[in-house]
Amino acid sequence: MKNNSEANNNNDNSNGVGNNNLVVTLEEPKENYLDLVMLALSTEGYFFLNEETSSFLKSMKTQFLGRKWINGCVSFKNAIKNGSVPEMPELGKPIDGFTPPKLPPVHALEGLIGECGVPFEQQLTETDMNKHRARLLIAQELVEKFVMPLMSEEEKQSLKCGQEIQVTACGSNGIEYQMKFKCWGSNKHVLTLGWNEFRIDNEFKALQDWVTMWVFRHKRTGKLCFGMIARRFPTNQLIRSQKKKKGKEMNK
Q: Mind naming one GO cellular-component term on file for this protein (predicted)?
């Protein structure tokens, strides 16, 4: 960060740059950016960013966005470690009660997300991690509530006819994976094709990882997309929602 000497020598401040203004450049080491921005914000003038600096700071903002949610509730993690599992939230809600950000906190997706649905969460199972099955099963209730509202009538009809839909999935690393979304039988909705590669690259773990999913339309292509980020909890068993447990008790 440095004083804008040209602006200081210019008496015309119509461009918003004056004696008290700072220009942020990439001359400083990136690890000093937070201190530099705090300094800039503490001044009474304006500060300006070149394109590269602006892009880097946006990535930092994305990195910190939702950090509390990503780290998860400590008291909840401790409760699981101690052997007690608190009452589970409604199906699709975060396991620890924290609210995820409205958009996936992935820098590579900034400016590319069009219409976006409400994020939902589900626990990864042993079969989701099975390389031979090569699919992620999404509960029917979750598909109906969170995925279907983002689908076109043509796509819904394709699923009913047993056809697959080409979709794109993106994880926290910003890498895009081409997958297929389809329905097996009458009510088993799955993501296939690139799922094995996706789960391996993201180092997912069965039972311990709870994946939050955002279903959205790509702003440029209009394609149906899935943003997926996992949060890890010390769970070593399959935890069912209270809704399903109550249903099982009623059927006994």
A: nucleus
